[in-house]
Amino acid sequence: MRFLLSRCALPSVVLLVFAAALAAQAQPHLVADLNRRRVPAYLPSQLSRGVEHGGVLYFSGQDPQHGRELWRSDGTAEGTYVLADLCPGRCDGGGHALGFFAGSLYFLGNDSEHGTEIWRTDGTVGGEELLADLCPGTCGTEPKSWVEWRGEIWFLIVASGSPVLWTSDGTGQNTRPVATCDDLGLSCFDDNTSAGLLGPDPSGQGLLLWVFTSDHPNVALFRTDGTAAGTVLLHGFADLFQTVVEASGPLYFLDGLDLWTSDGTPAGTRFVRSFDDPEQGDLFSVKVVDGIFYAIFSNGDWLRSDGTAEGTIKLAQLDFNFYSGPQVARIGDTVFAVTANGVWRTGGTPETTVRFEGPLGNIESVIERPDRLFVMARGDGARFVWTLDGTGEARRIHLAGPPPPDGEIAGLQKGVLISRGFRDLWRIDGARIERAHDFQPENGGSGPIDQIVFRGRLLFVSFGGADAKLFSSDGTAAGTTAINAEPLYDYNVGFDYWPYSYSLTRAGKRVFLRSGSILWATDGSRAGTGPIYPSLAHPRLFLGAPMGFVRGRFLFGGNPLGTVRCDPGDNEPWASDGTSGGTNRVLNLNPFFEPDDDPQCEIVKLSSSPGPGVLLGQVVLFAADDLLHGRELFATDGTKVGTRRVADLNPNLQSNPYFHPDSPELGPEQVGVGSDPSDLVRAGTHVFFVADDGRTGRELWITNGTHRGTRRVVDLAPGPAGSTPHHLVAVGDVVYFFAAHGAGDALYKSDGTQRGTVRVSDLAGASEARSLEVVVGKLFFVAYRPETGTELWVSEGSAETTREVTDLRPGPRGSQPQNLKVVGSRVIFAADDGTSGLEPWISDGTAEGTHRWGDVAPGRAASTPGPFSLANGQILFGADDGEHGRELWAVPVGDLPN
Question: Beta-carbon neighbour count of residue 401 at 10 Å?
Answer without folding.
Answer: 11
